Amino acid sequence: MRFDHAGIATDDADPLAELFANAFETPVVHEETFDGLQVTFLEMGNGYFELLEPLPDADGTIPRYLDSNGPGIHHVALETDDIAAALETVSDCGIDLIDDEPRPGAWGHDVAFLHPKTTGGVLVELVEH
């Protein structure tokens, strides 16, 4: 597996994307509306920052996260070539799965999340490109 991205929950992605683009000289490489979110990916050279801004009146994981924790890193994503095999491997290692099966994610990728109670408090996303 390889590092893919850090998912960052934010109330306002545009100024944060501009700040990162200017400060880190990183371009926006993909934007989309997905699952009640405005999603913006910035190229970091060896991975991405994924900015996650809830759309107005959206309900879901990111709005709840922002209400409880405020803006910040929401998850870390690891890229795999075979998400089904990766889910089997991590499950065999005692990691609890949030997603037993891959589901559609941003940018057209299949994704699955691992429960933070068994990954040291870190929400981990597996991403198959």
From TrEMBL:
Residues 2-129 form the VOC domain. It comes from the Archaea. One of its GO terms (biological process) is L-methylmalonyl-CoA metabolic process. Keywords: Lyase, Metal-binding. SUPFAM superfamilies: Glyoxalase/Bleomycin resistance protein/Dihydroxybiphenyl dioxygenase (SSF54593). PROSITE patterns: VOC. GO terms for molecular function: lyase activity; metal ion binding; methylmalonyl-CoA epimerase activity. Pfam families: Glyoxalase_4 (PF13669). Belongs to the methylmalonyl-CoA epimerase family. This is Lactoylglutathione lyase/methylmalonyl-CoA epimerase. It comes from Haloarcula japonica (strain ATCC 49778 / DSM 6131 / JCM 7785 / NBRC 101032 / NCIMB 13157 / TR-1).
